[in-house]
Write a structure and sequence with these properties.
The protein is an alpha+beta fold. It is built from 3 helices and 4 strands; from the N terminus they run E-H-E-E-H-H-E. The protein has helices at about 15-30, 60-65, 70-80; strands at about 1-10, 35-40, 50-55, 80-90. The chain has a 4-stranded antiparallel β-sheet with strand order 2-3-1-4. The longest helix is centred in the N-terminal third of the chain and has 15 residues, at about 15-30. It is globular and about 35 Å long.
């Protein structure tokens, strides 16, 4: 399984736009059969910082996600509100089976 972790620094004043874009991406991603988890968070002390945590069955599933229509809509909807974004892909080794 593949985990994707993304951190985003939002342009100040554009937080509502980013939240709408995150919800758009979340709703589409959660319908993908090979997307097992798609969550986003907002930093408690720095409201312009956000994080996304995604889990896919494979790297191929993630590539299919990035090729999806809703991913393209996310890119367009979040345009202009992201100051900095860092993403990484991780192999899940210590799985929590409580889910």
């Amino acid at each position: 399984m593949l985990a994707v972790v993304v951190t985003i620094d939002c342009v100040p004043g554009k937080e509502d736009q980013l939240i709408r874009a995150l919800e758009l991406n979340a709703s589409g991603s959660r319908t993908e059969p090979d997307c097992l988890k798609w969550e986003w968070s907002r930093h408690l002390e720095e409201p312009t910082k956000f994080a996304i945590y995604e889990v896919y069955t494979s790297q191929e599933a993630f590539l299919n996600h990035k090729a999806s229509e809703h991913f393209a809509e996310w890119v367009a909807a979040s345009s202009g509100c992201i100051d900095n974004k860092v993403a990484g892909q991780y192999e899940i080794l210590g799985r929590d089976d409580r889910d």
